[in-house]
Amino acid sequence: MEAGMRGDHPATETHDFPAITAPRMRTVQDLDAAVATCRACPRLVAWREEAARVKRRAFKDWEYWGRPVPGFGPPDAPLAIIGLAPAAHGGNRTGRIFTGDPSGDALYAALYDIGLASQPTATHRNDGLELYGVRITVPVHCAPPGNRPTTTERDTCRPWLAHELELLRPTLRATVVLGAFAWQALLPVLAGAGWRLPRPRPVFGHGVEALVAEAGGEREVYLIGGYHPSRRNMFTRTLTPAMLRDVLRRGALVAGLPTRSGRGNPGP
């Protein structure tokens, strides 16, 4: 047997595990399960597991997830939201993206306010939260030191995002991209999948929009840039709750999803 292989499957520790494994997944659920087994980036594996072992004092009684964090939301969503990576004591702790950290608090509150989430808070995987027509994912599925993945780590993880978007392709109409890192990670994924990008390539900014088309021209998907709801951006008011709601509402509008204009109990 070839080194690093088990049968005809690569070992999860090999660099090419995502590239070989992701395209074989037939459903979003299968992809999510495969993502959670990945150990392809040694630095990220060491960091996420160290954070899960040492823990933060406030979470000393938690059993941390400590693995790659899959996407979250229905597999036929017309709207995708793409962030950066799990937080060491957020998604890496709870096992669900944008759950258990200030960024998630801001994002899910905004989604609830406009009617795309069943509740305004996200605390753990079994808290009952549902998303309506929205799938949230990231270009890097492991918590990185300092919230800064390397370009090699981003590129190694890219096949997971590429195939997730391919599985969403039949229903996908719009993508809200939170932060410059996610924007720069997404454009090569779309180009590699045969989507025609505008020339020159669109530059990230809050509220920036671009339209990408399939090679045959039959379908188009909107890309909408938005500042990441990081603690720093929210504290400095670089991004306000109203700004976040507005960019998410714009994504929902072009994706054909109904939204609410104010706060209150949303519905599917």
Task: Describe what you observe in this structure.
With 268 residues, the chain is an alpha/beta fold. It has nine helices and seven strands. It has helices spanning 17-21, 28-35, 42-54, 91-94, 102-113, 151-168, 180-192, 231-235, 241-255, and strands at residues 5-6, 9-10, 79-82, 134-137, 174-178, 209-213, 220-226. The strands form two sheets. A five-stranded mixed sheet has the order 4-3-5-7-6, with helices on both faces. A two-stranded antiparallel ribbon has the order 1-2. A hairpin with a 6-residue loop joins strand 6 (209-213) and strand 7 (220-226). The protein is globular. The chain starts with a strand and ends in a 13-residue tail after the last helix.
